[in-house]
Each structure stands twice: as C-alpha cells, then as structure tokens.
Amino acid sequence: MPRPRSLHVIEVKAALVARLRGGLAQPGGRFLSTRAVAQRFAVSYQTAHRLLGELETEGLLLRRAASGSYVPGKSVALRGAQLIFHPRAKRKGSFGAHLLELLESVLHGRGIATVRSWPGAASVPRLRADHYPIAWECRSAVEAAAAGRRFALCLNDRPPIGIGGGYVDAVTTDDFSGGACAAEILKERTGRCDSFAILGGPANDPRSVQRIAGFRAHTDAARLFSTGSWFVEGGRQHVAALLAENPSGIFACNDRLAEAVITFCRQQRQPLPPLVGFDNAPIAERLRLTTIGIPWGTMVTEAADLAAARVAGGTTAARLVSLAHEPVHRLTA
C-alpha cells in the first residue's frame, strides 16, 4: 500500500498549480525544471519529477524530452519593440528626444525593428501584441501591460506593484539619492547649508517629489518654488521671486528649469548664484551647467539587452535595474 502523500508535497503541488493557473506563466513559455522545483520547494528530485508528470497528465504542462517543461498554448512571436514615449519627446533638444533617438539607434544596431507610439492626454495607448512595449513617461502603458500580464519595459521609472508588476522590466535611477547629491555639491561650493532654494517640477510628479525630498534631507532649510512644469517657460514665472530671496545656492529639479535661472540672470545682468541642475540633458553642455546626470548611455544599453532577450522569446522573471547617478561638474559661464 503506497504511503500517503505528506502535507508538504500536497502544498508544493498546489503552489505549482496556482502558478500555472494564476497568470504567472506565459503560454508557450518555459516552466520550472525538475531541478528548480526540487530546490525551490525543498523536495527530492524524484518527488519533483513525479509532480511535474502529474501536471502533464492533468493537461497543465507540456513536457519535451531533453528540453524541459512548457506552459500549454501558443506564444506570440515578437517582431520588434513598440516605443511609447510622452509627446514631450517630440520637442527637439529635450532629453526625451535624445533618449528616444539613442534607444532607436541601439535597437536598430541589434537588428530589432521599432515603431513609435505617442499617447494622447490621459489615454491608454494600444499595445501591439507582436511588439515588446518600452515606455517612457507613459504610466498608463506600463499599467496596461501589467494588467494584461504581458512583458514590458519602463524607462527611468519603477514597475507597478503587485503580481502584474512581475512582468514589467525596468531601468531606472534613484531620484532621492540624486537630490541628495545636488545638496552635497552646493554645500561643497558654498561652504554652507542654509538659505538654499529649490526650483521644482510639477508638484504631483514623483520624480520631482523624490528629488526635492533627497535634497532637503541633506540641508537645514530650502525654500521651494514649484513651477508646475518641466519646461523653461514654467521656470521663468518663478525665477524673479526665487532670486528675490537671495539664496546662497539653487537646485533646479531639471536642466530646463536651470536654464530659466541662467537666462534670467544674464538678461538682468545680475550674478548667478551657485546652481545645480538634474538630468544632464543636451542643453546642460551648452549652458556649462553642473548637473546630476542620469547615465543615459548605460540606461539605453541595459534597455536594449532586456528588449533583445524578450524579442528572442525570453520569459524569465522581470528585472529591475537601478543605476547610480553621475554628477557632472561644469563651470557655468
């Protein structure tokens, strides 16, 4: 008479079934190997082999000799990458435009075809079934991919939380740490840590919020001026009031806002306080602006690696790549 199955083995099988039926496995994708089941769930190799055999008998798995176990169903062959970028990337000279052009160049160099998509205001773009979505500043696209349990990539952002987020690759940076770097640079340049001013982006933008929080965590006081915009036009509306405070140093939450400060000081022929921007957008080099650089080249390389793996049929768990910032010291003219 066979020995009754232990509670642990019953729980292991239930976990495998839940993985297959709960949307955690892609049709046509590779499933856990016998060795992986044995190691992950602390059962013997023989028990793992038997459990996978039972799942095959029950129609939940396909097993191929000398190949492995696969999820039933036909996988969708990807033809390329769908680049879903915020319309701000259409603006020539913006770092969004720079990022898009750089990414397309690298992907094309690897033989990966691309199509561009421009989401409208507050709309969810249509995700192409045969393309790997890569989104910049389009949270709705990322969330739609997560809800549909399909692989996608978000640039300079973090994936959604929850099960669906397990399908979203991400290449990002730590905005809080970047803001702290800006504070340290201003401290070194001025020899003080009081009476700084911050020219922030939109109040509800997580990047601006985190950059400001990181800056304030390293200073005794910093007066905030929120522009409601990432563009130079938005910054111009607040520069006069900011400079009237006679700040000992200024942190602009992106380089376009820093441009507004520099332009105003030049037009008014007044001294420019020590200034640090953020992003290292193309405009920063022309302005000779000290800034907290996002490593765009590395970000694009990492994104291209992830895209190449997905287009080739990779179904491994999503990856989160967090890159360190690169402070770029320049002497503003």
Uncertain regions spanning at least 5 consecutive residues: none
The second-level CATH architecture of the largest domain is: 3-Layer(aba) Sandwich
Number of helices: 11
Number of domains: 3
Number of strands: 14
- Cα end-to-end separation: 88 Å
State mean pLDDT (0 to 100 scale): 89
* Biggest sheet features: 6 strands, parallel
Strand content: 15-25%
Give helix and strand order, one letter per element, not per position. Answer: HHHEEEHEEHEEHEHEHEHEHEHEE
By CATH, the superfamily of the largest domain comes out as Response regulator
Strand order of the largest sheet: 4-3-5-6-7-13
Word description of this protein:
- The chain is an alpha/beta fold and 333 residues long.
- It has 3 domains: 7-70, Arc Repressor Mutant, subunit A (Orthogonal Bundle); 80-173 and 296-324, Rossmann fold, CATH 3.40.50; 175-293, Rossmann fold.
- Helix content is 41%, strand content 19%.
- The protein contains 11 helices and 14 strands.
- The protein has helices at 7-21, 34-41, 45-57, 95-109, 139-147, 175-190, 206-216, 232-244, 255-268, 282-287, 296-311, and strands at 62-64, 68-70, 80-85, 113-117, 131-136, 152-155, 168-173, 196-200, 222-226, 249-252, 275-279, 291-293, 320-323, 326-328.
- The chain has a 6-stranded parallel beta sheet, with helices on both faces.
- A hairpin with a 3-residue loop joins β1 (62-64) and β2 (68-70).
- α6 crosses α7.
- The termini are far apart.
- The relative contact order is 0.11.
- The mean pLDDT is 89.
